[in-house]
Amino acid sequence: MDACEDPLRKLSAHQNLVLGVTAGSVDQLLLQPMLYWKNSLQQGLPFTMNPKLLYRGTAASMGNMGFTTGQQFLTAGVFQNFLTGGAGQEMTYGQEVAAAWMGGAASGPLCGFMELIMIQQQRFGGSLWGTPARLVRERGLSVLLRGGLCTVGRESIYAAGYLGIVPVTQKLFTDTYGLSPHLGSFVGATVGGLACAALSQPLDTAKTCMQGDVERKKYTNAFQTLKTLHVEYGSVKALYRGYWWRGANIVVEFILLDWLSKRLAPIMYPKLCGPGAS
């Protein structure tokens, strides 16, 4: 299957949105169990292999991943053209990573809302539409922003990884060292994924705990949540609960999203990204 290099710069904003939604949805369907295990470990819930639990909230998580990825593809593409001065201009490695970082930050509010619904479904059940209705009825509209700032910070780091570090590493391996682009993608995804996971893990842990406790019985704001976890477990390790599940999940996600975006683009938009396209 032919691959398309730099699809974000070749496609329009709405085409990037559709490509991202498609790639993100497929990615999340494949990796849903890993997300459940990570969330369970962070909240101190027991490990399970029950598929009814593993795939509870899948619609919300696919919607979250799909629309968040779509938004990140769209905004990162816009920022790439903004920073370079246009689609036909050369893009530096720094500009590519910076555009990805800004695109990730812009996706944070929507992502935070969808993950709130997913986490509440995983803990208490309920439908995709009934869960937000229950939350608003019981806690008011402001509950839908629970953990929002943590999500913005986390997504900016995450997008900088898969839309910045991975393609930059791949280009370095091929253009500078003449090595396989597949090796570059793997190294970029592994190193970038684990590094991004480490940097964003405290934010993700605080967000997950806050969204699982909308009643604020134990966790109030992000700072208090991080402090409570540190005191309760007596170590900074508390902030990294579920790190290896999340780190492994991110590495696989980085590889999958890079592969899917470059191979779905020629299928979905052959005139722009297919063989012979300019």
UniProtKB/TrEMBL annotation:
Listed transmembrane segments: none
Subcellular compartments: Mitochondrion membrane
Membrane association type: Multi-pass membrane protein
GO biological process: mitochondrial citrate transmembrane transport
Pfam families the UniProt entry points to: Mito_carr
Record-stated family: Belongs to the mitochondrial carrier (TC 2.A.29) family.
The protein's name in its UniProt record: Mitochondrial carrier protein
Organism: Noctiluca scintillans (Sea sparkle)
